[in-house]
Amino acid sequence: MLTKIAVLGVGRVGAAVARTAIAAGLDVTVAGSGAAEDIALLAEIVIPGAKVATAADAVADADLVVVAVPLHKFRSVDPAILAGRIVVDAMNHWAPIDGELPEFSDPEVGTSEVVAAYFAEARIVKALNHIGYHELEEDARRDSADGRRALAYASDDAEAAASVHELLDRFGFDPISAGPLAVGIAFESGTRIFTSRLDAAGMRQALSEAAEDSALAA
């Protein structure tokens, strides 16, 4: 059972993930790109209840790590500190923010596959990327299984995927496995899933349709 997570990135997405995790009863440590003391005041105000540490210290004893930095900065995270760790890739490619990134220009390759190649020894799960940071708190239904929004996840690591399944459920959403990490391209920015609020049945249908579209295009 998950008890402690680390969130790398204290922008809007990272802060929302951290607050949602705290509300779900998890012990949360956050880290920014610099010294812990540089974000301590920000975290105290924006993420009350979170601990603050360097990235290396934050992940050291975490059960799971959420990487929520702007995609163009993902290489600022030292891959060595994530070796062997379960890592949620919550990032998206937003050209207005990230600029044009040639390594993410292949429409047949998902962004998480590129990220996974960089964090080669981490256990990557794509999740939390197709929900707005404000919706993460607004749409959470931790006390009821009725009317829950579904969130998809994708990974090549079954054990890591199971941990993220638990995380999403404790956050108050219906977790839906999309399959291997490569399938995560089905819920990247601009897709139907990315722009929709879906329940579990709707998510399964959308994933099935995305798979059919992919097969037809192959």
Describe the structure.
InterPro entries: NAD(P)-bd_dom_sf, P5C_Rdtase_cat_N, STEAP_metalloreductase. Keywords: Oxidoreductase. Residues 4-93 form the Pyrroline-5-carboxylate reductase catalytic N-terminal domain. One of its GO terms (molecular function) is oxidoreductase activity. This is Pyrroline-5-carboxylate reductase catalytic N-terminal domain-containing protein. The chain has 218 residues and is α/β, with parallel strands linked by helices. 36% of the residues lie in helices and 17% in strands. The chain contains 8 helices and 8 strands. The protein has helices at 12-23, 36-46, 55-60, 95-98, 111-118, 133-138, 158-171, 200-217, and strands spanning 4-8, 27-31, 51-52, 64-67, 86-89, 123-126, 150-155, 174-179. The chain has an 8-stranded mixed beta sheet, with helices on both faces. β7, α7 and β8 (174-179) form a beta-alpha-beta unit. It is globular and about 50 Å long. The mean pLDDT is 95.
Keywords:
globular; single chain; alpha/beta; 218 residues; eight-stranded mixed sheet; 36% helix
DSSP strand content = 15-25%
Q: Class by helix and strand content? A: alpha/beta
Ends: how far apart?
A: 40 Å
Mean model confidence by pLDDT: 95
- Helix content class: 25-40%
Order of helices and strands: EHEHEHEEHHEHEHEH
Q: How can the largest sheet be summarized?
A: 8 strands, mixed
Whole-angstrom Rg: 16 Å
Number of helices: 8
Query: Spans of 5+ residues with little confidence (pLDDT < 50)?
Result: none
General shape? globular
How many beta-strand elements?
8
Multimeric status of the protein = single chain
Strand adjacency order, main sheet: 3-2-1-4-5-6-7-8
Organism: Microbacterium keratanolyticum
GO molecular function: oxidoreductase activity
Keywords: Oxidoreductase
Protein name: Pyrroline-5-carboxylate reductase catalytic N-terminal domain-containing protein
